[in-house]
Every structure is written in C-alpha cells, then in structure tokens.
Design brief:
The protein is of the alpha/beta class and 351 residues long. Helix content is 46%, strand content 13%. The chain is built from 15 helices and 9 strands. It has a 5-stranded parallel beta sheet with strand order 2-3-6-1-7, with helices on one face. Strands 4-5 form a two-stranded antiparallel ribbon. The longest helix has 18 residues, at 223-240. The radius of gyration is 24 Å and the shape is globular. The model is unreliable at 1-6 and 339-351 (pLDDT under 50). The protein binds adenosine-5'-triphosphate. Residues 14-15, 23, 26-28, 34-36, 67-73, 116, 195, 223-224, 227 line the site of adenosine-5'-triphosphate.
C-alpha cells in the first residue's frame, strides 16, 4: 500500500471525505457538550461570558494543537455562544492580500472569522491581518508602482479565531495580537469514551461501556479518529452481529482493519517490527530503516514515527532510531540481552 501523502489511513488524524460528510452531525454545539480540554474550555468560557456581559465582540482567539482535536468545533462554538455567524477559510486559501481584504470587508459586526492553518498564509496577507486585528481597519492598495495609493477601509469589530498545528511557526507580531491562546492536548482514554458514547447516541448505535473503552484505547488521543473507528466498528457489528458494540466486537472489527490495541496500524507495526527484528532494537539510521520496510524516508519519518515517539515506543537519537523496552513488550518480543547491536554495520545508508 502506498502511504504517501493523500493515502488514507484509518488512524490518520486529517479529515477524509467521509469524515467531512458526517462530522458536522457529530460536532458538539456548545461548550457544555464539548468533551475534555478542561483548561481551554474554562478559559474560553470566561472570555465569552465577559464579552457577552459587555455586549461587545469577543477577543481574538488562537487555538493550537494537532489535527482532529476539535479546533474547528471550538471555533463554531465561539460563534454559537456569541450568537454570531461564522465565516470559515484557511491560510492556504488566502494567497494574496486582496483575498483577505475581500473577506474582511464583507464581515458583519460581531462575526467570527475562522482561519484554519493560519501559519500558511502569505506574508502580505499576514501583514494586512495585523492591522485588521488591532485597529479593525485595512489599507486597500489601489494601482501599482509610484502611483499606488492606500485607501483606508474601516471594518466592523469581528472575532478572529485562528487555528494552527504549529503555534511556534507563527510570527510573534501575529501571535501577540490574539487576546487568548488555547493549547489543545491529546485526549485521555476516558474523555474519548465520552466522545464515543455521545457519537454512538447521535448515530443511533448501541455501545456498551467496554466496547467504547476498546475503541477509545485505539484512537490515538484524537476524537476524529475515535469517531472514524466507531463508524467502522458499527459496520462490523451490523454485518457480523446484532448491531451492539461490545468489547469483543470492537476488538474483532479493528483487528480486521489492522488497528491494534494501542492504535498502531500496519505501517507503524512494520516500522517497529523491522527495528526490533532486523536491527535488534537499533540504533539504526532512518534511511536503512525505511529501505527495510520498503517505504520512503519521509513516510517513515513523518507518518509513522511521530505517534511511535509519542507513545514512548521509539526514540530518535543522534546515533539513529532506537526501540524502547515498551516496544519489545508491545510486539510480544524478548529484547536481546545486550540491546544495541552493531550500529556501525547497520547504518549502511547513513542517518
Ligand atoms: N471535545 C470534543 N468533543 C466531542 N467531539 C469532538 C471534540 N473535539 C472534536 N470532536 C469531533 O472530532 C471531529 C474533528 O474535530 P474538528 O474538525 O473540530 O478538529 P480540528 O482540530 O479542527 O481538525 P483539523 O485541524 O484537521 O481541522 C469533529 O467531528 C467533532 O465532532
């Protein structure tokens, strides 16, 4: 299978076509329904309540965190809680300052502008946004060269909700213009169980507590993945059983899709398996490891490794990739008595 960009993984955190079609039905509509993220929820609640009490517009909000953790959902909740409409766009869609000017100038008072992947906006658009956020004004440049003139345009007060997977990539002047920054964490299994119960209810699927726990444990801390796995388990329960999701049904269904008890899929297990079985647990260079699993370096490094590192199964060291004791245990293998092997011979392709 090709795991290159665009290949769909059941445990991938980016939205696929089916996710997009069903996600709006599963989105919590207000802060009370939003599961987990207690800090962000409490802080945002204060920001919104205060703005409502003042009868004004809420401060600009920056949400950072991995894909599928609920940034879009929270942006929609900000609008709903403020009783305001929402406009949704993304950094890559705004390549010219003019694109942004067109959007900003059509906003109505109090409207929420959701800018996903805000770190991918073009530089000129970013500079226009500074002024819009601070002074609710933009300068529209008319003409070219020495004859160009800037026509100031007043904007109604609005709330920008920016989302980014990488808050560190935002230039400080942009970051500083947000009144509130919320960092979204990966979800605890108990929180994902609540997400699954809620979604199962909305999808009209019966799920017992152990069934939800089984799916939660394989969802990589991410509600989008939990919802996706729930849909696949529901299919299995309907076709192979009486439609009720139990622990056995969930485990069997996700076994069919090769998502293991910890949420690793075939690619993750291939990388980990090669590291353990072929290289004695490492250290081994990334290129060597990639050749061993028959994948591109980038696929191993960007698609498989981040979750393996997060799970404490693999470490990236200056000498190469190293498996942790938990990796041996997870694949049910006994570590060699002296972990380490012969890195000089294994690093044939460099790090
Ligand atoms: N806290 C939550 N409680 C319940 N469901 C949630 C929660 N967070 C996210 N979800 C569900 O997960 C799905 C993905 O959420 P959302 O689209 O908001 O993620 P995102 O962080 O914006 O992702 P991306 O960065 O890819 O745009 C939604 O369908 C939503 O129903």
């Amino acid at each position: 299978m090709n795991w290159e960009e665009g290949a769909e993984r059941l445990v991938g955190a980016d939205a696929d076509g089916e996710d997009q079609a069903v996600e709006s039905a599963l989105r919590p509509k207000n802060l009370d329904e939003f599961v987990g993220q207690p800090k962000v929820r409490e802080q945002l609640d204060l920001v919104l309540r205060a703005a409502r009490a003042r009868g004004g517009t809420a401060d600009h909000v920056l949400l950072s965190g991995a894909p599928g953790l609920g940034k879009t959902t929270l942006a929609m909740i900000v609008a709903a809680e403020m009783g305001a409409p929402i406009r949704i766009t993304s950094g890559p869609a705004i390549q010219h300052a003019g694109d942004l000017a067109a959007i900003l100038s059509s906003l109505t008072e109090g409207e929420v502008l959701f800018l996903d992947e805000i770190h991918r906006m073009s530089r000129p658009a970013e500079e226009m946004l500074y002024m819009a956020m601070e002074d609710f004004r933009v300068d529209v440049i008319v003409g070219k060269g020495p004859g160009a003139t800037a026509i100031p345009l007043e904007l109604p007060p609005f709330t920008l909700v920016g989302a980014t997977t990488r808050a560190g990539l935002l230039p400080p002047p942009l970051r500083d213009r947000f009144g509130f920054t919320g960092h979204m964490e990966f979800y605890e299994p108990a929180e994902l169980e609540r997400v699954i119960h809620r979604s199962a209810h909305l999808l009209d699927v019966e799920t017992d507590p152990e069934g939800a726990a089984e799916i939660a444990g394989r969802s990589r801390g991410t509600p989008r993945i939990a919802n996706r796995l729930l849909r696949r388990v529901r299919d299995y329960a309907q076709v192979k059983a009486d439609g009720v999701i139990t622990r056995e049904i969930a485990a069997a269904a996700l076994g069919v899709y090769e998502v293991d008890a910890r949420g690793l899929d075939r690619l993750d297990r291939a990388v980990l398996g090669a590291l353990l079985k072929l290289f004695g647990g490492g250290p081994v260079g990334l290129s060597t490891l990639s050749v061993a699993v028959g994948e591109e370096r980038e696929t191993v490094e960007e698609v498989a490794e981040p979750f393996l590192v997060r799970e404490g199964l693999l470490a990236r060291t200056p000498r190469g990739r190293v498996a942790t004791p938990a990796a041996w245990a997870h694949l049910g293998l006994a570590p060699p008595r002296q972990n380490g092997g012969a890195p000089g011979q294994q690093d044939l392709f460099g790090a």
